[in-house]
Amino acid sequence: MLNTPPCVGSCSEFPRLPRAGRRGADASTVCAPAAAPLGAEKAVTCLLSLGWLVPLLALLGYVGHVFLGQRAKQWSALFGIVALALGFALSVGMLAQTIGGASIDVSVPWLSMGGINVPMGFSIGPLQAVMLTMVTFVSCFIEIYSMGYMKGDIRYNRFFANVTLFVAGMLTAVVANNFILFFAAWEIMGLCSYLLIGHWFEDPANGRAATKAFLVTRIGDVGLLLGIWWCFTLTHTFQFAALPGDLAALHLPAATLNAIALLIFLGAVGKSAQVPLQIWLPDAMAGPTPISALIHAATMVAAGVYLVARTYPIFQMAPSALFWVGLVGAVSAFIPATIACVQTDIKKVLAYSTISQLGYMMLGLGVGAMEAGIFHLLTHAFFKALLFLAAGSVIHAAGTQNMHEMGGLWKKQRWTAATFIIGSLALAAIPPMSGFFSKDAILAAAYVSPDPVFYWLGTVAAGLTAYYMTRVVLMTFFGSPRSEHVYEHAHESPAVMVVPLVVLAVPAAALGLAAGFLRHLLAPGYIKPDVGLIEFVPLLFAIAGFLWAYALYTAPLARRAALLRSPLIAAPYTLFKQLWFFDHAGSVVTYVLGLGPSFVIGAFDRYVVDGLVNACGSLCLWLGRMCRRLSVGNAQAYMLTIAVAVVIGLVALQFQAMGG
Amino acid sequence: MIAVQGVPLVDFLLLGALLFCVGLFAALRRSNAIMILMGIEVMLNAVNINLVAFSRYLPRGGDRGQAFAVFVLAVAAAEAAVGLAMVIIVSRRRGTIEIEEISDMRG
Amino acid sequence: MATGGFPLLTVLTFVPALGAVAVALLPGEAKRAIRGVATGALAVPLLIVVGMLFAFRYGQAGLQFVQRVDWIPAWHVQYFLGIDGLSLVMLLLSALIGVLAAIASYSIDQRVKEYFVWFLILQTGILGVFCAQDLILFIFFFDIVLLPMYFLIAIWGGPRREYAAPTSQIYTFTGSVLMLVAFLAIYFLTGAQSFAIPDLPALISQHIGHGVQLLLFAVIFVGFAIKLPVVPFHTWLPDAHVEAPTPISVILAAVLLKIGGYGLLRIAEPLLPVAAHTLAPLLGVMGVVNIIYGALAAMSQHDFKKLVAYSSVSHMGFVLLGIAVATPLGIAGAIFVMVSHGLISAMLFLMVGVFYDRTHTRELSRLGGMYRTLPLAGTILAFAALGNLGLPALSGFIGEFFTLTGVFGSFRVLAFWTVVGLVLVAAFNLMLMQRVVMGPVRPEWKELAPMSARELVTLVPLMGGILLLGTVPAVLVNVINTPAAQIVARLGGG
Hints:
C: 19 helices
């Protein structure tokens, strides 16, 4: 639909691809194992040159859903699952090859318009291969899980169709080698999130949440679009590969580069739900839980971080822009973490934790540790998908999202609880879970950066993370059941839901082992700064957060209530509970800039503009009526007029003759 | 200038003007369709008197004026025929020939 | 410029008129025969245009399929038809929309014969406008379009048709009179022995002073601005749309508005390039005002059809912007937006009709939950609305993206405000979907007839076109690159 250039038919054709555009657009491959025999090298190139197939497979899955899904009943889910599984296999193969240092960047001519040439193509490097592997893996298991979660849903097939399209969009964004294809995929993701958040649209609140998500991310898109056009106006290329070099060659003033980078970053802020555009993400919980997992882990929000990583060379030329990336990241890590501490909806806690974790990724990118940010993106994808799916399993069983009605579910849902706890430990960055390694790398880089405030915001947020996750685990799985009805009703989910949990728990726990490998792959030569014992400060904060939460939530309810009455706690509590008033501000902005002007313009149009037009018409009609008085429709009156006129004329002539 | 049996041109013209005014008054003020038609006939004949008088009195008048008068008579006859026919139709359909009462097409 | 040969364009233009005669000769009760003949007479131009797509030489500048004979020799008026790439895409669009609107007209059941007679005359006028290369001939066809439009709205329209039909009529006719005045002024001021568009630019730059050129441009611009329409000359459009029957709304939005943009590109810009250059920033500002004003006004509407009408106003702002930029990219973008909007607005108005036929209301507050009741119709409406908001992979995106790429190079500030407008465009489209497609199912709309095959037949080609232009825009862009470059070359020459 939006990708798949008519690309290589077979490997041997590859070198004869039509060369398009400018140097950046040319096909270029780098095959690393120089010592390998020629045939092997060719095979390497060949697999990478199939990179476009990964998103295409997902797209084919979507097409299958659309045209055959209704007939396939509950088996329609297999269209997407099989497509993603194949994509995963291909991605793993490509990842293996990129480890050898291979990469590819292929373009074909797509459009020549008004004197500009726009090629279309894809590129696969280590970053892309890693992302493809993660996205296909996570989303494949999310779909398998959804077979159980969405069973019996009225729009079962539509759900899977949209999910598959969503993933296709993400995969396209990952492999895109130019801004246009990237932006197209980016918007398709926005569309799918819109459709999926509004999946149960019968409730108008869900529809409103979907609209909000689309519009808020669209505000970010404004920046991204302007950034793209600015780049193009300067360099006449949309290609990722060529852009940084071309920009550098122009010796632009720093202000221009900063402005471009910040505009692109604005797109990422919208998509990755960073402060102050984070307001859409918690509302997006209106969608089915697997969608939350998908949006929060593998797609959508990850795309924003990926965008910054993909255009990182531009950011590296713009230090002030990087500072802002770091600042927005640090603030986004901190503020939502505080909000997560006071939420009672289990999904909302996870939603705010996602914003917070995305903040860490941006922080990592902002302080120059690109590979640490991406590493956190990967670990987060696994453990956040796991957490959401486990939370979905709880919701499925309990029939409520309110943690005040849960409690003691450990006895009913052993598997769910165990995997949820693994995810929580990873999120709270407790060693040896994966989250510890990735967050640690970011904070270490932040520590050596010139702005210590980044580090401290991140570290405090780490403590808050441990606090709110402990709170969730205690309120949900332990203690005594607060609602008899919910407890009676609860049960362990079916295997189709539990197996994905277990599978996802493995990388969530163990991906930390791959830290060194990934660093080598993504940023060869980068050495993690050695910060000595400082490395364990965030861990201390986390343990403190854990202990505080444990003390509070194993204590009687009255104790907590008493605590809330002290002004020292109550003031921030209100602030957090009111989401730092961001949503209020958002409503004000909506009214001041959108609905208000719309109302004014609507009235202006109806009464002033159209009023003037009608006034012109009325004036003519009035003149007509005046003239009509003269023509009474009586021939005799007309004749009288004529006679009088003739007499007057004759008299006048007479006078003239006499005067002359 | 030769007077016709001592009657000067101005008397003919005065008669014509008088007749024209009578005809005009009838055409304008009467509401009976036949009276209006008659008013028009009177006006036409007033013109005829003028034409004939001028043709007699003007030095090189010839008989063109009289020829015109005959023309006018012919047209007047035709007009009277059509007008009266319409009046008869109207009177049959409406039972009246008062023009105030047949003003349907008035805007 | 090749003259002679088979008068293909004459046939193309007047087959619908012949069809009108044929329909007029049929008995009024033979509704099926009338519909069949009318559709046939509308399909012939489509087939001819499709045939011309193959015979057309795309890289060649200048007019093709030319036919040029004296028409009123005393005043040097010529019967001069010819097309370039710009005319070709407009012909294709209007021929296609003509057939689809005719099929959509099968639901008209009153005074069928008269309806199709007017419809066919309308189509002759439209096709003629896009072929005419003589100013007087252009005005002739331009005014032919107006008359049937009046009757089609005034007889088959909605409850307020007696207000809407004359208003829109007088408004657009004012525009045509203004243009006629300007054309005559050009004729007399240059002393040209011709009204032929290709003959005039050189004479104008020789004989007419800069100030007068500005005045002439302004007058011609207002004429086309009413048609396009440009704020503040737009208020006739929502009224006309609301009252017009569905197929006529489709033609109005998809084709008639394009006459405004086409006229600017065919007549105003090439004839008065210096004035166009001087006034370009003003045009650009008006374009942005159109986009934002139209979007905000659309957001405040309660009537489904009015909302879509204001969305047209908003999108025509992109056309104006692209024309103002006056680079090959901007002009090509403007043409692309015209075609894409033709397809998308046609879809939207057809969908308004689909819902109105079933619910007999266009009040947005009374609709809702339609995706649940009519899943297919809901999906198609969503498709159209998403195309309208500029979703990539659909045609709206390509036109807007590349127009704005051009705009950014020339008017950076305008590009910024336009992108703000894009958020508003997205907002009203999503509000539309929220109110019609989503939400709880109302009890009164629980049982609605599913979409008929005839409705699908009118919609599927449009969907295909939108998708095709969105993914493989080269098929259209290759046709319009040459005329766009030519228009810009003339501007540079001035």
